Amino acid sequence: MKSNSMTFVRTFVALLTLAILSPVCSAGVIDTSSVISKAPGKIEPINAPFSMSQLERPVFPDKTFNIKDFGTVEGGSVKNTEAIKKTIEASAKAGVLKIVEKK
């Protein structure tokens, strides 16, 4: 059971890290392929001393949200906080992890 618990924790941390760093990764700062390639291919069954559902690998849509589509303005003369917030909310609602700024 300890091995399954550790696998779950490592997988959870990897996915959480990927979700948090996704905007940075999408900008080309971090290569996400190395994080994904290190994640276990299969989630081992959990043998808990109580009834619980088995975990399944999440599947994320292959879609990208562009902050420009939500009203951001270049140059620093306009606060883009609300537009970025809307982008993040729409991305989260759609289950998408990739947010970019494309011109």
Can you describe what's shown?
It is a single chain. Helices cover 45% and strands 6% of the residues. With 103 residues, it is mostly helical. The chain has a two-stranded parallel ribbon with strand order 1-2. The chain is elongated. The chain has two domains: 40 residues, no CATH class; 42 residues.
Structure summarized in a few sentences:
The protein has 103 residues and is mainly alpha-helical.
Secondary structure elements and their pairing?
Elements lengths: L1 H25 L5 H7 L25 E3 L14 H14 L3 E3 L3
Parallel strand pairs: 1-2
> Order of strands across the widest beta sheet?
1-2
Q: How would you classify the quaternary structure?
A: single chain
- The secondary-structure class comes to mainly alpha
**Mean pLDDT level:** 75
- C-alpha geometry: elongated
Number of strands: 2
The proportion of residues forming helix, as a percent range, comes to 40-55%
